[in-house]
């Protein structure tokens, strides 16, 4: 295993910032299990695996591996107690709306989801239920933020991603038969259990504190809610990622 070059370490440092991730079209996966999953599933191109000096790696990872001194690794790692292994990967191309227009099933869309843990869990859950894509609307955390990638537990890259203005994307997809469903706890929302999902369903979850943008809520699109227990009065709302999980279970669409 060779030593990492100065240029490789320089790039690794840069990838902590979104603007450099976008410029270089690369991101970091940290942690042994996550790195092994990404390498194993073959959905994302792994360029380099950085390993702290003296740490053993599996045969699966050895072909990609370079070593760095512990002080350098601690500096570039995003976790408080790093495991001594991380990978630099190429970002997959975003899916185009024209491609999604041809699909059937469920798409998950996030309206200004800002918590990396929530976004990572939403991505992981969407992949588990076979969602066709995730649409990250404006104001949503970068899906390649290190904390988001860790929260996916190795599922990054398992479903296509599209970023952009939700209204513009929805308008284009609706022309090809996609139906938008907005998760909302308001009185005008229909109970999830009474919904018959369409063959093409876009499930939208809103910001952790403010919910879905009013412009989307007032668009005339279908609003759905997850009903609480009859005697529940103490909990204001569900966590965004939990709400998506429940809704995906209830809106399973065979495609």
UniProtKB/TrEMBL annotation:
Keywords: Methyltransferase, Transferase. The keyword Methyltransferase applies. GO terms for molecular function: methyltransferase activity. Residues 28-95 form the RNA 2-O ribose methyltransferase substrate binding domain. GO terms for biological process: methylation. Gene3D superfamilies: 3.30.1330.30, 3.40.1280.10. Pfam families: MRM3-like_sub_bind (PF22435), SpoU_methylase (PF00588). Belongs to the class IV-like SAM-binding methyltransferase superfamily. RNA methyltransferase TrmH family. This is TrmH family RNA methyltransferase.
């Amino acid at each position: 295993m060779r030593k990492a070059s100065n240029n490789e370490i320089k790039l690794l440092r840069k990838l902590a910032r979104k603007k450099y991730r976008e410029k270089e079209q690369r991101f970091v996966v940290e942690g042994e299990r996550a790195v092994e999953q990404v390498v194993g599933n073959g959905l994302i191109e792994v360029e380099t695996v950085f390993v702290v000096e003296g740490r053993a790696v599996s045969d699966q990872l050895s072909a990609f591996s370079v070593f760095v001194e512990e002080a350098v690794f601690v500096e570039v790692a995003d976790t408080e107690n790093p495991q001594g292994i991380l990978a630099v990967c190429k970002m997959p191309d975003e899916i185009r709306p024209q491609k999604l227009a041809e699909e059937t099933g469920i798409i998950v869309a996030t309206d200004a989801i800002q918590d990396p843990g929530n976004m990572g869990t939403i991505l992981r859950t969407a992949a588990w239920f076979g969602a066709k894509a995730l649409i990250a609307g404006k104001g949503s955390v970068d899906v390649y933020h290190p904390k988001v990638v860790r929260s996916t537990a190795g599922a990054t890259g398992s479903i296509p991603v599209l970023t952009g203005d939700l209204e513009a994307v929805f308008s284009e997809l609706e022309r090809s038969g996609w139906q938008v469903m907005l998760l909302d706890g308001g009185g005008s929302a229909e109970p999830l259990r009474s919904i018959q999902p369409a063959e093409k369903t876009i499930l939208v979850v809103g910001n952790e504190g403010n919910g879905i943008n009013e412009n989307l809520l007032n668009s005339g699109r279908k609003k759905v809610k997850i009903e609480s227990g009859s005697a529940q009065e103490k909990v204001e709302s569900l966590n965004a990622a939990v709400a998506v999980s429940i809704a995906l279970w209830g809106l399973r669409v065979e495609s």
